[in-house]
Design brief:
The chain is built from 22 helices and no strands. With 481 residues, it is an all-alpha fold. The longest helix has 33 residues, at 104-136. The relative contact order is 0.07.
């Protein structure tokens, strides 16, 4: 049914609401625009969301001021309650924005929620203003450092605009009698289901890219970024000019590419394991094997190293057994050895992850048409022939997708495994890029150089992913991007 002129105008006005809601949700998690920071005792690194859900975090620095009577405890409770009200208001407005994608009946309910949320948010902002006024009257302003939040009026304007527009929408929209139920088009429902995951990707994958700016400053922990410590491409040149750094990077890349290369060359093992696992006729034994091989994935590398110590240390099970059998004259610590480090790390990683990696292949095998096996049986094919001519070809697309992802992550070996197994004898051969970045940044505190290395790692990984995808498209006619 075609929309009326009033509905078309209403749809355009909704863009104002959605933009305002999006900005308010973003401001909810950015510490720099936290309107609850009304004095220097409020940590500058906490966001409005944190201030609204955690009273202890909001007032963590108020202890001495409260004991001395510089700040009234009622002011902190007012500040906390007001912050919570603003958070609730933003959440209600977000619900209003989502419901604006539905039919007229759903929009009417969303507008009502938006009005209530905006009123709650404005009430919370008034409470924050009153809390600021109470704290500003302290007898020790140099200790409490009262400050009026710079983002206060911006957020007030956002709430006021959303309130005005939602009220206008409530007046403009008239429920359609035929719409007895709340409804929304399928494409919008799917989008809203996907939205939380897009938000997570944005927060954990794209927002951290803002930290790349540290590569252009002579930054030390605790400093602030300003033009006084801006050094341009100094740390990028450091990778080439400093011979010691060049040697370290070359050695680290050799270890990283070597261990990742072994992993990629043996990436077919989970597929083979899944095929043979599914061929087991005894269901109880099959479930036992699958559980037994999947559980190690949930064991931390610290606990894995503890198990390795119990088995391979000087007083471990294996060493004691060989001494008692007379094969060795004295116990030996097999973990304190720098030989075959790459192979050892691959074996530990394979033992820990092969069962978990096989799950996706088991799911793919369950999706193969059983009529293919029945037809092959009628043609006289044996078990191995059916595995080779039906199961393996059906798993090849899944294998290549995972292979391309592995190539894209070739520089990302992880850090936990190598950190716990590192010792003085294998330090040079076990140092991978992630561990090097950790020790360079956390151990030595060279944050800018660490950032440069991480940037180059990300860029190389993206290039490798697109290159592998292009090769796959040329050779197989298929790609994942």
């Amino acid at each position: 049914m075609a929309k009326t002129k009033r509905e078309l105008i209403s749809d355009k006005i909704y863009y104002v609401i959605r933009i305002g809601i999006l900005l308010s949700v973003v401001f909810l998690f950015i510490p720099g625009v936290n309107p609850a920071r009304v004095c220097g005792l409020v940590n500058k690194n906490i966001s409005l969301f944190t201030a609204g859900i955690s009273y202890s975090t909001l007032t963590s620095e108020f202890g001495r001021a409260l004991r001395k009577g510089w700040v009234d405890v009622a002011s902190t409770y007012l500040l906390y309650g007001s912050s919570l009200a603003v958070c609730i208001g933003i959440a209600a407005n977000a619900a209003c924005g989502c419901m604006s994608l539905g039919n007229v009946k759903l929009k009417k309910l969303g507008n009502l929620i938006g009005v209530i949320g905006s009123i709650a948010g404005l009430g919370g902002m008034v409470g924050i203003y009153l809390a600021y006024g109470q704290i500003a009257q302290t007898v020790k302003p140099n200790k409490v450092e009262p400050m009026f939040p710079s983002s206060f009026w911006l957020i007030v304007v956002l709430f006021a605009v959303i309130l005005a527009v939602t009220i206008a929408q409530c007046v403009m929209l008239h429920p359609v009698e035929s719409e007895k139920k709340f409804g929304m088009e399928t494409k919008y429902r799917l989008f809203l289901m996907l939205l939380p995951f897009l938000a997570l990707v944005a927060v954990f994958s794209y927002l951290p890219l803002w930290g790349w700016r540290y590569a252009f400053f002579d930054y030390k922990v605790g400093d602030t970024l300003s033009m006084d410590n801006f050094v341009g491409l100094k740390w990028f040149k450091e990778l080439i000019k400093n011979p010691a750094t060049v040697r370290d990077i070359v050695n680290v890349l050799k270890n990283t590419l070597g261990m990742s290369g072994i992993g990629i060359a043996t990436s077919w093992l989970p597929m083979v394991f899944a095929i043979f696992l599914c061929e087991m006729k005894n269901s109880k034994f099959r479930r036992f094997v699958q559980t037994f091989t999947t559980v190690p994935n949930f064991i931390s590398w610290v606990l894995v190293y503890a198990i390795a110590t119990c088995i391979f240390s000087t007083d471990g099970f294996l060493s004691s057994l060989l001494v008692n059998l007379g094969i060795w004259s004295e116990g030996q610590n097999m973990l304190m050895s720098g030989s075959h480090t790459w192979l050892k790390m691959w074996l530990w990683g394979t033992w820990k992850g092969i069962g978990w990696s096989a799950i996706i292949y088991i799911a793919a095998i369950s999706g193969i048409d059983q009529q293919l096996y029945e037809a092959a049986t009628m043609d006289g094919a044996g078990r191995f022939q059916k595995m080779w001519h039906i199961t393996v070809p059906s798993l090849i697309p899944t294998f290549f997708v995972l292979l391309l992802m592995s190539i894209g992550n070739i520089l990302s070996n992880g850090m936990d495994q190598y950190l716990v197994f590192k010792n003085s004898t294998n330090a040079s051969s076990i140092m991978v890029l992630d561990l090097y970045v950790y020790e360079l940044g956390i151990g030595k505190g060279i944050i800018p150089l660490t950032t440069v290395v991480s940037m180059l790692k990300s860029i190389v990984s993206v290039v490798l992913l697109f290159a592998a995808n292009g090769i796959s498209k040329v050779l197989r006619g298929e790609s994942i991007i």
